[in-house]
Design brief:
Elements (H helix, E strand, L loop, with lengths): L9 E5 L3 H13 L3 E5 L2 H10 L4 E5 L7 H10 L8 E5 L4 H9 L4 E4 L5 H12 L3
Parallel strand pairs: 1-2, 1-3, 3-4, 4-5
Length: 130
């Protein structure tokens, strides 16, 4: 995998909104991370079969396989049981939040509430690179 020869932390972004995925990718790369971005849940599974990432940034509403279904699949895998997952969503209803927590999510952010600089800083903290 690209970025493997160095010690960059690897982030997989699962986000179907291309402008947001691009903005996150650019900010995180600028902060010194190796970033791969995909636009649907089945692509996340494919990427995780190829390589392991230090953290997964997961949108819940995606085509082919939504984020919640993908998260349940991930948690079935030996590696995936303990994978660090940060959910990015515009859904903030109680039922959705309950489902997120049932799947042992590292943290979640409501997209409309995050500022990219603060988000990158929080990811750095989560990965222990500050």
């Amino acid at each position: 995998m690209e970025g493997e020869g160095n010690n960059l932390k690897k982030i997989l972004i699962a986000e179907d909104e291309k402008p947001l995925a691009r903005a996150l990718t650019l900010k995180l790369e600028h902060a010194g991370f190796f970033v791969k971005s995909v636009g649907d849940g089945t692509s996340v599974i494919d990427e995780l079969k190829k390589d392991k990432f230090d953290i997964l940034l997961l949108d819940l509403v995606m085509p082919k396989m939504d984020g919640m279904e993908m998260l349940k699949e991930l948690r079935k895998d030996d590696w995936g049981k303990n994978a660090k997952v940060v959910v990015l969503t515009n859904l903030s209803d109680t039922q959705t939040l309950s489902q997120i927590m049932e799947n042992e999510v590292f943290e979640y952010f409501v997209k409309t509430d995050i500022k990219l600089e603060e988000f990158v800083q929080k990811i750095k903290i989560k990965l222990g690179v500050v």
